């Protein structure tokens, strides 16, 4: 390991970077990286269960949103919140987002994070605090593939509420059209 480098899921050097320095770095490495508090944060490769949950969630949303103008995307586009750039596992973007060729978006209707031992604290803490600042956000999903449940945070007026759902439940999202998603598909489990 090079001097000044740290383990994954932590900043790789102590001094702040500019956004341009980060983009140059991110383009030169194969690892996924987020830009948080002026520092690049590497993302560890996920497990098979993580990949299945991301695919199950994105596919279910994409099919359900087909005629709404909204789209579901996976971690290829940065979500900008203030000066930070995050790579959520899955996002539902409003119609027209992102523009062709865009590398970042500033709006998301829904964000899903598949938690792991190394990301759970950040998914529940730093990211959730940042995501709540998005005026467009209507729902936040925390997907737990180990315990086979989903936490659905939804916004009603000025307050957020949470519902805990097991693999045999379904989630109903009222926007942009009513969408019902079986939790077992979000967990990447078969029928």
| Oligomeric state | single chain
Numbering strands along the chain, what is their spatial order in the largest sheet?
3-6-8-9-10-11
Structurally, the number of domains stands at 2
- H/E element string? HEEHEEEEEEHHEEEEEH
The major sheet is characterized as: 6 strands, mixed
**What is the beta-strand fraction?**
25-35%
**Name of the top-level CATH class of the largest domain:** Alpha Beta
CATH fold category name of the largest domain? tt1808, chain A
What percent of residues adopt helix (DSSP H or I)?
A: 10-25%
The DSSP helix count reads 5
* Rounded mean pLDDT score: 83
Number of strands: 13
Q: What would CATH call the homologous superfamily of the largest domain?
A: tt1808, chain A
Pfam family, one: Uma2
Domain Putative restriction endonuclease: 19-173
Protein name: Putative restriction endonuclease domain-containing protein
InterPro entries: Nuclease_put_TT1808, Restrct_endonuc-II-like, Uma2
């Amino acid at each position: 390991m090079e001097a000044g480098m740290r383990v994954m899921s932590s900043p790789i050097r102590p001094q702040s970077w500019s956004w341009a320095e980060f983009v140059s770095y991110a383009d030169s490495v194969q690892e996924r990286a987020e830009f948080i508090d002026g520092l690049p944060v590497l993302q560890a490769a996920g497990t098979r269960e993580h990949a299945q949950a991301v695919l199950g969630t994105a596919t279910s949303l994409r099919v359900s949103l087909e005629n709404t103008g909204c789209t579901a995307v996976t971690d290829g586009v940065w979500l900008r919140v203030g000066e930070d750039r995050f790579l959520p596992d899955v996002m539902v973007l409003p119609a027209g987002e992102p523009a062709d060729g865009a590398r970042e978006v500033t709006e998301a209707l829904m964000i899903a994070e598949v938690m792991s031992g190394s990301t759970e604290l950040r998914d529940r803490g730093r990211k959730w605090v940042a995501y709540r600042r998005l005026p467009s956000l209507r729902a936040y999903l925390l997907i737990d593939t180990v315990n086979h449940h989903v936490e659905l945070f939804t916004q009603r007026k000025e307050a957020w509420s949470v519902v805990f759902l097991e693999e045999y439940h379904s989630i109903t999202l009222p926007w942009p059209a009513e969408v019902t998603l079986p939790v077992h598909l979000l967990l990447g489990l078969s029928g």
